[in-house]
Write a structure and sequence with these properties.
The chain has 170 residues and is an alpha+beta fold. The protein has a single domain, classed as Aminopeptidase, CATH 3.40.630.30. Helix content is 32%, strand content 28%. It has helices at residues 12-25, 41-51, 88-92, 110-124, 139-147, and strands at residues 3-5, 64-70, 76-83, 97-101, 129-135, 151-158, 161-169. It has a 4-stranded antiparallel beta sheet, sandwiched between helices. The chain has a 3-stranded antiparallel beta sheet with strand order 5-7-6. Strand 2 (64-70) and strand 3 form a beta hairpin. It is globular and about 40 Å long. The two termini are 25 Å apart.
Length: 170
């Protein structure tokens, strides 16, 4: 019923529905890469394509892949961002995987499904140990990470925030 789907031009309308809900909620949209950032969908699509290659380095990023959690009607429930490698900043705060579920679909188990579905993709990219981080106060995210085998390594400070760093062995 649910699957992870790479962005495609066919997902434009459902993406607009998804991202509009996020924007209207006033919440911070995660993962960051899924935001519109003033671009139309085709521009975003091509940007996501570039970021999935080594050309990402030219833009100050690491290569990464964005996936949407979609149902049989291609309705987007969430987005998950898999970074193929870590730089120093991502090793501290960010990790290999970032994710978010649209506000109306939270607390239904979708994020756990999305993360568990992303782990084989990470493994296929040659990642054998996945770093996933979350704010210390984000108990739901911490539970999701632990349900997927995450083991807390430590907590670090990032300004006023405490960031928990979990590792998942693949």
């Amino acid at each position: 019923m649910f699957r992870l789907e790479k962005p495609s031009l066919e997902l434009e309308n459902t993406y607009i529905d998804y991202i509009t809900e996020w924007e209207e909620s006033g919440e911070e949209i995660v993962p960051f890469v899924s935001r519109r950032n003033g671009l139309d969908y085709k521009e975003l699509f091509y940007r996501w394509e570039v970021l999935s290659t080594d050309r990402a380095y030219d833009h100050g990023f690491v290569p990464s892949s964005l996936y949407f959690l979609v149902d049989e009607n291609n309705r987007i429930y969430g987005a998950i961002h898999i970074r193929h490698v870590l730089n120093e900043s991502l090793l501290k705060n960010g990790g290999h995987i970032g994710y978010g579920i649209r506000p109306s679909e939270r607390r239904k188990g979708y994020v756990t499904l999305m993360l568990s579905s992303a782990l084989p993709i990470a493994k296929s990219l040659g990642i054998h140990r996945v770093l996933v981080t979350c704010d210390k106060n984000n108990h739901a995210s911490a539970r999701t990470i632990m349900k997927n085998g995450g083991v807390l390594e430590n907590e670090i400070r990032d300004g006023d925030e405490a960031i928990q760093r979990y590792w998942i062995n693949l």
